[in-house]
Description:
By secondary structure, this protein is mainly β. It has one helix at residues 47-51; strands at residues 5-6, 21-27, 32-43, 53-54, 65-77, 81-98, 104-122, 127-140, 144-145, 152-153, 166-175, 180-189, 192-193, 201-202, 205-217, 220-227, 235-241, 245-250, 255-262. The chain has one domain: TonB-dependent receptor, beta-barrel domain (Maltoporin, Chain A, Beta Barrel).
Amino acid sequence: GGCRYSRPADRDDDFSEWSPKFGVRYQINDMHNVQGRIQRGFRAPQATELYRLQGSQTIADVESVELDSYELALQGAGARWQYSVTAYYMEKDNDIITDSSRAKLNGSDTEHKGIELAGAYELSNTLMLRGAFNFAEHTYKNNFKDANGDVDILISGNVVDTAPETFGNLRLSWQVTPAISTELEWVNMGDYYTNQENTADYDGHNVFNLRSSWNVNPDLRFSLNILNVFDEEYAERADWTRFTDERYFPGKPRALYMGLNVQY
């Protein structure tokens, strides 16, 4: 193997799986309905997971990832409101992960369960509130060995790394005039563990964005957006490796964008 990347010998790989889906829907009344879905999905290994290997790993003998999903959803809509509540349970088998030494591993089984909420409410003729939030638990179901098959990775019962229990957004829109509109958005990312051993974590973040637009005339539109209004220091993604410990991919600082759209 190379110092950073290894190139496996040439070979041919092929993968085939079946992916059935079954769903039912019941219309409770004119406003509400309930839906149920059962399905199996799969993902074949990507080229980088098979052939772009790290360090001393010389072969990634990985299989397709399989996912069994069960969902129950309640949805509704009225003159000034709409909502969706979805409860789900998923089991993922043979997940392909990158461990702290950057090796590609197969055989991780995980369990995922949670509730997704989404809705909108018209507060007045000029104010609209929209939001979507996810509350979930993601858990490793088994232990497995490292890429060399030598060391047991004891993570059964641990929370899946880089998988927050909560995340979502809330948007308040204001139609100031028929031509001018503005929207304030709150983006929330909950805390999460950054390694499989659950010994390192990221605290999560809250970011606010402000977007405005002015339709000067049917052919001319001006926009003004302020992203990360309070200049929050946050990470778009955080993880942990054996070589660097904590690793953060910084989010953008406060930024102002102006735009002019012309149609002719």
